[in-house]
Amino acid sequence: MTDMNLPDYKQQSDAVRDRFDRLKQRPVTMEVRGLHKEFATRGGTVQALKDINLKIHKREFVCVIGPSGCGKSTLIRILAGLEQPTSGEVLLDGKAVTKPGPERGMVFQGYTLFPWLTVKQNVMFGLVESGYDKNTAEAEARQWIDLIGLARFENSYPHQLSGGMKQRVAIARALANKPKILLMDEPFGALDAQTRAKMQAYLLEIWKNIDVTVFFITHDLDEAVYLADRILVLKANPGEIDELIEVPVPQPRHPDQFLSAEFLATKKRVEELIHPPKEDGDDDHLNLVRMVPVSDEVGSVF
Ligand code: ADP
User: Fold this and answer.
1) Looking at ligand 1, which residue's alpha carbon is closest to its atom 11?
2) Which CATH code fits 3-103+179-274?
3) pLDDT for 9-24, tens place per residue?
C-alpha cells in the first residue's frame, strides 16, 4: 500500500453523505436480525457467527470480506436458506427465510452449470422447474443469454466455454428467475486477473440495468472497493461484524477510479481491518540466509 497521505475514508463529502442517506431510505430487501450460528464439533462447539445485524437496501451492492474462517460462507448459506441459524432470523421483503427459493439467486465460485445441458437449457432449467411452459421459458432464457452476450453459444455445452463464459451463464441462470437478491460466493475467485476485471465490469453493467440487490463475498480488496456500495468486514473467532464501510467512491464505477484518493483510502481501511499490525513482533519476517554461492551482487546492479 502506498505511503502517500490519504484522507480518512470516513470524512465524507456532502455528496457522499447524501448518497448514503438516500440509500438508507430505500426499502429494506434483506434484513439479518441477531444471527448466531454454532456448529457442534468433536471438541465442543464452534461459534461461526455472533450477533450479526444488517439491513440490505433495495438495489444495494454489499460486499463481504474477512479472514478465512470468519463465517462468510456460513452467512451466505443462511441467507440462501441452505443452512439454519442457531438463533436470530433472516427476512426477505419482511418474510422469514427458511429454505432456498427462486427469489434468491446463487452464484458460486465453482462452475455449477449442468454439464449435460446446453447454455440455453441451463438458463431455462429454473424457469421450467418453477412452472413456465417450455416456449415461454425458452424465450425468457434467450433474452438473458442475449444480455450476457452469449447468443452465439446458446447451443454450446459448458465444457466448450471458457471460465468467464461459464460464470456469465451462471449469472444469467440466476437472474432468469428474477431474484430479489443475487447471492454471490467468490464468483470470480477462480478466474485469471484479466477475465476477472472483465467480469466485474459485466456485473456492474448488469446491476445498473436490472432491478436486483447484490450480496457478494470476495477476498480481493480491490474487487470489494470497486463493486460495493458498502463493505461488510467480518472478523474471526467468533465471526462477527468488524466494520460496515460506506464506500465513498462515486457511482457509477469506472476502472479509472482505482487510483483515486477515496478508493485508496477505503482499501487502506479494509486492509487495516483484515491485516492489523502485529503487536508482538513481525511474524512474517523472512530469515534469509545464503544457501548457495552467489556470483553477482544483485544489490549493486540496481
Ligand atoms: P469462511 O467462509 O469465512 O472461511 P466459514 O463460514 O466456512 O468461514 O466457517 C466459519 C467457521 O465455522 C470456521 O471456524 C469453520 O471451521 C466452522 N464451520 C463451518 N462449517 C462447519 C461445519 N459444517 N461443521 C463444523 N464447523 C464448521
Assistant:
1) 48
2) 3.40.50.300
3) 777 788 889 999 999 9
